[in-house]
């Protein structure tokens, strides 16, 4: 599967080039389909006798239910963000990456714990297939809007504020679709709003304005957070952005 090959290529290169077991003891593990290959790669090191004395000391911090299972499935050591509030290196996917390494994340509705982990890490590495790379601004490729985690009771108020104050073009509560009648409920028991602002010229300011709205828990705009991004394509080539 060419798309899976692209994801795997990016993830393997990112782990091989950035994870130093002698330095990195606490590792953040993101959510989504690309970071699966990060956990897989780390697991391969675990079972390599050459690394056995190093790998027993490190611990992986999840970014939600799926991420926690990914850590357990790969027989990695599971830790909590409460035990390890300072993280050495974190790996995660993204929905879109602009030319300044600003991100839209939250396609998988895990953005709160993802941002808690990524901003607690000294180094934050993005792994993605090349579709996620935007030639210019955010909002150009990713057309599903900015994911925003909100307190459920505030959804009408936040929707109105996004439309009237921040001039969003479209605002939707993310629904479970065929998987669940009614809205998606996050691992933190909140709702997700997707707000379409079209092409985003100033993501930093937009993030701040959204964050100040009453009822907003966190936004899917990850500003000045990623250190590097690895983009894989289907023939196994990987581009690195710093
Ligand atoms: O929700 C997120 O931000 C995830 O990291 C996700 O959107 C990335 O998804 P993918 O790795 O399955 O493309």
UniProtKB/TrEMBL annotation:
GO terms for molecular function: ribose-5-phosphate isomerase activity. Transmembrane segments: none annotated. GO terms for cellular component: cytoplasm. This is Uncharacterized protein. It comes from Saccharomyces kudriavzevii (strain ATCC MYA-4449 / AS 2.2408 / CBS 8840 / NBRC 1802 / NCYC 2889). Pfam families: Rib_5-P_isom_A. InterPro entries: NagB/RpiA_transferase-like, Ribose5P_isomerase_type_A. GO terms for biological process: D-ribose metabolic process; pentose-phosphate shunt, non-oxidative branch.
């Amino acid at each position: 599967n060419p798309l899976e090959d692209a994801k795997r290529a990016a993830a393997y290169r990112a782990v091989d080039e950035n994870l130093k077991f002698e330095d990195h003891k606490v590792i953040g593990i993101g959510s989504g389909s690309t970071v699966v290959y990060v956990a897989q790669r780390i697991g391969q090191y675990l079972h390599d006798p050459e690394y056995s004395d190093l790998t027993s000391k490190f611990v992986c911090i999840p970014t939600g239910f799926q991420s926690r299972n990914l850590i357990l499935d790969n027989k990695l050591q599971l830790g909590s963000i409460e035990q390890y509030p300072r993280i050495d290196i974190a790996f995660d996917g993204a929905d879109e990456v602009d030319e300044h390494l600003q991100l839209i994340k939250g396609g998988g509705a895990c953005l709160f714990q993802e941002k808690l982990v990524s901003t607690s890490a000294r180094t934050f590495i993005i792994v993605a297939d090349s579709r996620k790379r935007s030639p210019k601004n955010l909002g150009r490729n990713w057309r599903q809007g900015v994911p925003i985690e909100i307190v459920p009771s505030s959804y009408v108020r936040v929707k109105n504020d996004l439309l009237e104050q921040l001039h969003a073009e479209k605002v939707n509560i993310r629904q479970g679709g065929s998987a669940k009648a009614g809205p998606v409920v996050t691992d933190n028991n909140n709702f997700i709003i997707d707000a379409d602002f079209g092409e985003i010229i100033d993501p930093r300011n937009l993030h701040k304005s959204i964050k100040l709205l009453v009822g907003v828990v966190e936004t899917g705009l990850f500003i000045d957070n990623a250190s590097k991004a690895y983009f894989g394509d289907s023939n196994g080539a990987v581009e690195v952005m710093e």
